[in-house]
User: Fold these one by one.
Assistant:
Number 1:
Amino acid sequence: MSRQTYAPIRNLSVVLISVICLLTLSSWGFYAHFRINRFAVYLLPKGMAGFYKANIDFITLHAISADKKRYEDSTEAPHHFFNADHYGPKPFVTVPHKWDEVTKKYSQDTVIKYGTVPWTIRYQYYKLVNAFKGHDTTGILRTSANLGHYVADACVPLHLTSNYNGQLTNQTGLHALWESRIPELFGNQYHLYPGKIVYIEDPLSQAFIICRGSFKCVDSVLKIEKAISKTFKDDQKFEIVVKGKRKVKDYSTAYCKAYQQALKGMIARRMRFAIKMVASYWYSAWVDAGQPNLNKIIDHPLTESEKQKIAREEFSLKTGKALILTDDFLKESYTKGKKTTPEN
């Protein structure tokens, strides 16, 4: 059994600066990944809920650890996407699911070059199964957070295309617009409760199902933004916004609102689906591990005030009111003595 005592942060300002830098680098975006992992905890059954709620801040804050790893490990980036369009007009018919078969057909270098997120999800899934079987507290938490990140990435249309940033269609910047800017502006208005989770029979097949659904949205993501762009002048399309202590040029609130309305709820639907899938993968891994008693490995039980806060959050989610995760949330979570910095 692996245990870890979570040490307090010694230099909060350094950590917060590092985290803020990731805001523009994260796939779904900083706050969106936070929401997806955090809200997934509230969908878990009784046998899991106590453990995950006791560690909800870790699960939340480490939702971006996989993105951080991209800038420290050159082999990490392909784990976050799958350029399905590289494999022809019907990639989900053409591409074999099994790793040995797909690498034999296209070569391992090719598969890695064009993204491995479905296989990464499968790998992390069985890593989580093994962590559950071993009652490995640290392994369960870290792998849950990372698995949640990769599953969420697979739910993003722009992670399924070579034109991931609109760079091939003169729409450069689309990546951050769809995945970060709009969720940051309007995410607190989304109804994100997805209903009951499901048991996943085949984690790899389900990963491909997720990717296929995201891929079907790619044309709409691109075509709708191009149409909206024609109705805005440059001085209306962009504005100066404050990010941390910096002032940067970004898409205007008006432009983001127009694009979101034209998408007819697509971003909220993909976030909601991501939340359901993340929780379903966690749950299925726990079932496949034999449903171990997670209450026995809770290192730091929740205080009464923490239980009340979590109960309010859960109620808010299930009644259609999204939570606002602010810098104050970050500071509070990071300064708790049982928390740690994101792992490498």
Number 2:
Amino acid sequence: MSVGTSLSAPASASPPRTLADRTAALVVRRRRLIIIGWLVLIAVCVPLAATLAGALSGAGWNAAGSDSEQVRQELRRDFAQLGAEAAVVVVNAGDPAGREPAAAQVVAALRGHPDVRAVTDPAGQPAQAGLVSADGTTALVPVHLRASSDSELPEAAHAVRDRVAAIDLPPGVRANVTGEWPMWADSTSPTRRPCCAPS
């Protein structure tokens, strides 16, 4: 006859608490304090949101010592009238007869604008300047943006684009703003819209 021994099963040891467990327990215990802290943080950050568009302007992405930066400095030195900050309004009229008055309309609308330092009228430039297409239907209107720093250039480009869009051009005539800073302005457009506004 065998003698059986009855051994009681050892109580299972509780698993060690992880960092997530301890954090969750702390949040539950101090929930009121944590909620108040978040509300204070939101109240402090809301006024700073007004500066978001300027902070995300896209300026300052030049690689120091790069070929592109060297070209930018040469443009600023050798073409002080336009420099590297020129926006370009492309005016297309479909026919040469409508192109010149349409370009003149764009030039007149931008001269004296607070965000424009200078506008070049393609009609007053020699053919070698290349501001009028060979078929005479398209003209380029260079626009020197006014800004005290690179971070202000996208905002100036936004203003110029809005002014050009408001010009009442004849039917069939298109005017589009392009160039480095207008493209930066396009890339930062989402930061200018309220979070829930339709695109």
